[in-house]
Amino acid sequence: MNQWAFVIAAYAVTIGGGAVLALVSYIQMRRSER
Length: 34
Description:
1 helix
């Protein structure tokens, strides 16, 4: 396995985690405004 597979996997985890965090934060913000 070359290093690019690890780099791509690390980027995917980071971007995916950021998207999940943003989505959960948005949902909590909408819920607290109600």
